[in-house]
Amino acid sequence: MSTTIDPRANVSPRAQIGDRVSIGPFTTVEDDVTIGDGTQIAGNALIANGARIGKACRIFHGAVISNPPQDLKYAGERTTCELGDRTVVREFATLHRGTGEGGRTVIGNDNFLMASTHVAHDCILGDRIIMANAVSLAGHVEIEDVVTIGGFTPVHQFVRIGRHSMIGGLLRITRDIPPYCLVGRDPVVFEGLNHIGLRRRGFTREVLEGLDRAYQLLYRSGMNISQALVKIREDAPLMAFAEVRVLVDFVAASKRGIIAAPRLRG
Fold this sequence. Notes:
This protein is an alpha/beta fold. The protein contains 5 helices and 27 strands. The strands form 3 sheets. An 11-stranded mixed sheet has the order 1-4-7-10-13-16-19-22-25-26-27. An 8-stranded parallel sheet has the order 2-5-8-11-14-17-20-23, with no helix packed on it.
């Protein structure tokens, strides 16, 4: 199957377009663009300068990829917005390129960005992330692999979200979300381990018990975060789990601070 470009599309001859690509009517593809093999782009989309789109992606009607960042400091530097393979971008999503010379917005493989989602400048997203409708990421947000975020949830700039976490909808995320956890309520709090999601992904009972123990020390021991991290690190059987080490490293590196524990109801 050859590449097909609707005659009503506006595609620059300078764009690098792979094999088996399809581009729908009234879509614009600017000069400094790369589109990988097998990617499908529907009508009325904008693929702007700096877009680097992988293989077998699906980009729906009205999506905007690699527009200039909404950053007052941006002065037209050469920056990019990079999508991995098999990523789905639904209707009217807006993905902006980085800011500052060489700045990059990076979105990994096998992600699903639903309608009207927004990814701002210099965000770094891993693989297999689901962002439901109208999730909005401010600049410099980092999201690790296999994260789910419920609809209409904004995420503050520079927030980090750990792997395998699940965040409810209609929330406001202003602090870091540790890995493997459920997040709910308003203001947001740690609701427990993401047991169902982790079991579905093959995490063993022993690993889940180890993570539960580590989170008990973080959130239920009465110690502050620094004291809890010391206690976890001193527990050799607990630190034998790679997942617990991931949790410890994530929390130790947090600059914004991690979300709080829920208050116990009397």
